[in-house]
Amino acid sequence: WALTGTVAAVIMGWINVRGIRTASLVQTFIVCFLLLVGLFLILGVIVGSEPSNAQPLFTGGAPGMIAVLVAVPFLFVGFDVIPQSAEEVKIPPRKIGRLVVVSVLMAIAWYLLIIFTSSMAIPSADLANHDLVTADALAVLLGHEIWGTVVIAGGLAGILTSWNAFLIGASRLMFSMARAGMIPAWLGRLHPKYRTPANAVILISVLAGIAPFLGSGMIDWVVNAGSPAIIIAYFLVSVVFLLLRRREPDMERPMRVGGAGSAGGTIIGVISVILTALMFALYLPLTPWSTDLGWPAWIMFGVWMLIGIWYMIRLPGGIRAGADAEEQLIAAVRRRRGQGGDSGLGDD
Keyword Nucleotide-binding on this protein (predicted)? Predict the structure, then answer.
């Protein structure tokens, strides 16, 4: 199985080196298959569900909810791919915001469908006895084990879509960070033919190809270390959102969150700051419901933070806040590196 993951890493890397168009075609095909699996789940609920299996509707209380909330940040990684890939797919800025909201709502609907299907098919007391609950649920609902295999294939397809989206978003993020001088410049170099951040894609693919051989324990550590880091990123975005609303009220905003004026946006920003701060508190030993990430995860988290801080303090100074701050930073980095000209991503 580890070798299978390595082969998949090579294939996904090759697809993404070839360009956003190839990657998006693969993504569209896999998503269509996932939608087909979703239709089978709906069909199963219609023809074979037993509402009494869902009783009781709520169990576990606050500890159960906290256990799920701790993993939520990692589940939300991927929606940021939409704005990160906007430069290549030429999506209007206002449409980008709408697509992010719609994609989140669709993901919520998908998770609810899976939970609803499983709870209607298998008695709640027996759920813990099944390793692949959703697959077993559809097999029970439609009366044949082949349907469980279909769901397993859908699960693998879901992994591939997440993998593909991660490669698209992470490689473009690394390209932008390299161009801004935050990480080594070679990660921002583009493929001469496909105009994609090939070095970043290759680095990520190599790491993904090695990861299966490190065992499930390492994967757990990465997820546990990544979740609080993601929350910090969300927190900083929320803070910057509030600062920009106050310092640059006239900034061009194709999609103005909170509507016209400043009150709506300020309220949403404050709520976002509070929620992300509370989410981060769940990782700290402050409450009876706080989770224990384990010392390996905290070591990984700390090392990663130190690396980020080191690259941050190496950024050029003297950048003035304003609409052209990004251009100022990129120009300063190029002067430091002795580079000129502009290198943009391709759209093929």
Answer: no
